[in-house]
Fold these 2 entries.
Entry 1:
Amino acid sequence: MKTRQKIILFFVASLYSFTPAVEAKSAVEVLQNDFVFPNEIIGLPTKLSDFKDLEINYFTTNDDVKIAYWEAGEGEPIIFIPGWSANGAEYINVMYLLSKKYHVYVLDPRNQGLSQRVKYGNRISRYSMDLKQFVDHLNLSQVNFSGWSMGASVLWGYIDLFGTQSIKTLSLIDEPISIYTHSNWSEEERLNAGGMTTSAEKMIAAYSGTPMSEDIVDMSVMARYIANDSLYFQNSEAFASATIKNNFDSMSQVLFDHAMNDWRDVVSKKIDVPTAIFSGDYSHNVRSQQWANSVIPNSELYIYTKKEEGDHFLAFKNPKKFTSDLDSFIERNK
C-alpha cells in the first residue's frame, strides 16, 4: 500500500511540475519576412536572417497581457528594458554584439513593440511587475539588468517593490530621476533631478507634435533623434520602422505616470548593487546622472563625447563602444 501511495504521489507531483515546452521561433519566422539593412557594417549582419539565433517569444502576465521578448545567445543573462515607445527591434545591433558571450533578452513593454495593446495597467509600477513576472517566467535567480530612458524608471520601480536580490549588475542609460520639475524646487534640485518639464500634460502634447516652448518642455532629445547621423542607428531605426507598427494613443497612456514619478529616494537609498550610468555631452541629463553617481555606492559613470555619439541614443548610435563598456563593467563585477 505504501509503495502504491508513493507511485500515486510521484505521478501527481510530476503533473504539477510539468511545464510544456515552448516552441522557440526565429525572428524571421515571427515577422514573416527577412530584412536587409540599408548600411553594410563590418561585424554586424547585412540582413536579419544573418542573425541566426535571434528569436521572438511571448509570455502572459497575471493580468492577461501578452508580452513579447527578443532573445539570443547563451551564457550569463542580460535583460534590457527599452525606453518609452521603444522595442527590441531597436536593440538589434546591441543584441547581435552581446549575444556572442551573453544570453540577451529585450522586453517589449505592454503597448510597445510586438506586445499587446491594452487600456489598463499603464503605470510604471505595473510595468515593473511585468518585469518581475518576466524574470519569474525565465526562472532566473540573478540577472544583469539594463534600463534605457523610461526603462531605467521601470527598474527603479522594480527595486522599490522587490529589492535588489535578483540584480547582479545594473546599468542605467540617460534617464532623469524626476522628469517633472516641482514649482518649489531650487535650480540645483532641478538639475540634480533632471527635471525637463513643468507640465506633464503639455509634455505629452509636445510628443504628439504640438509646438511647445522650451521653457515648458525640453525637446532636445527629439532634436538628437532627428539627427540620424550614425550608420548603426540608421540600420536599427530602419528595421524598427519596418517591423513595428506603433500606436501613439496606446503608448501615451503611461506617459503621465512616467513623468510624475520622483525616484530620488530609490536612487539615493535603495540601490546597493554594482551600477553603471551612461550619458553623453549632447544630453541635458548629465548633471542628474552625475548626482546619481554621487549617491549610488559602487557606481561608475560613463560620459560619451559628441564624437562618440554621446546623446540619449548612445547605445544605438555607438553600439560597439556601448557593448564593450557594458561587457567590461560586468566582467569587473563578477
Entry 2:
Amino acid sequence: MHARSTVLLLLALSFLFGCAGSKPIDRKASAETKALYRNLGKLAKKHTLFGHQHATEYGHGWSGQRNRSDVKSVTGSHPAVVGVDFSGFSGRSAEEIQIAKEAVRQNVVDTYNRGGVTTAAWHFSNPVAKGGFYWVDSLSLPAVSYLIPGGAAHEQYKEILQGIGDWAHTVKGADGKLAPVIFRPFHEFDGGWFWWGKPYTSREDFISLWQFTVSYLRDSLQVHNFLYAFSPDNRFSSEAEFLERYPGDKWVDMVGMDNYGDMGRDRFALDTAAFKLKIVADYAQKAKKLAAFTETGLESIPDPTWWTKTLLPTMRKYPMRLSYVLVWRNDSRSPTHYYAPFPGQVSVPDFLKFYQDPYTLFENDLKNIYHRKRFLGIF
C-alpha cells in the first residue's frame, strides 16, 4: 500500500496544474459542481475512478448498515463513485416517496462528506401506464410523447421533476454546501427494455424530453448541483450511431456507455468493447465533455481474473480519458446477483490487484475533489 501511495502521489503531481478545458453546461453550477467537473477531467488523464451501484445501501447478504460496502470489506476503501437511483421518487404513495427521498439524501450526503462521488440513475416507473420502468407489451404505453411539452401528461411530468428538484436542494453536506450529483436519466435508450427505449419513441420526441428535463431542473427549478450524463447501451459501432439521439452539446456534461454484453454476459468481445469506448471517449475529447464507462460488469463474477484480464485491458487498450467505470449492484438477498466481490468471493485476489493498480482510484485515493484551488486529486 505504501508503494501504491507513492506512485499515485508522483502521478498526481505530474498533472496537478492541468485543466479539463471545459465547463458544465449550467453556467450557474455551484462551485463544488464546477470543481468536480474540472477535477474529474484532470484525473481522467491518467486514472479512472471505480464505482459500484448501491454500494453503501446494501450488499451481498446485508442491508442498511451505515458506512459499509462490500468493496470496503475487501479493499478497506469504499468505491470512489457510489451509484444511487431516483426510482422511488415517483409512482408510490406520498409516504413511500418521502422515505425513499430521505434514504437517498442521507446516502448522497454521507458520500459527499467522505469525499466520494455520487451518480444517480433513474429507473423511472411509467407515469401513464402500469408495468413499471420496463416495457411490458400488454400494459405499457409509449410515455415519452405524453411527457414532452404539449403532451397529455406534461404537467404531471413537471410535478415529478419538481419532486426531484426539491430533493436536490436538500443534499447539504457537513460544510453546508450542496452535494453534486451526476444525473443519468433515460439510460440505455437505444434498447427496447425500458418504456423510453428506441422502439417506443421517435428521435425528435426523445431529444425534446431530454432537453426539457435539463432545462426545467436547471432553469426553472434552479438545480445547480447536477451534471448530466448521456449513456446509451452498446448498440452502436460508429460515432454517428452513438449520437443518433444525442440532444446536443448544450444539454450534456458527460457521455458514456453501458455495456454488459461484450464484457462476458453474452460474449467476451473485448476488442469490440474497447472500440466502442474509444468512440465515446474520442467524442468527449472533441466536444470537451467528460466520458465514463457508465455501467458494466459480469454477474456473479465467475471468472476469477475478470478485473485485470477483461475490464482493465478493455479500458486501457486505447489512450482514453474515462472519468469512471461503474459496475452494477450486489443484491442483498439473491445468492447470485452481484457484480462486485465480497469477502470470500472467487475474484477477490484479482480485484485486489485491480485496486492496487495506479490506474484505478477508490474513495480513499481522492482528496479535495470538490475544491479547485486545494485539489490534489489523490494521495
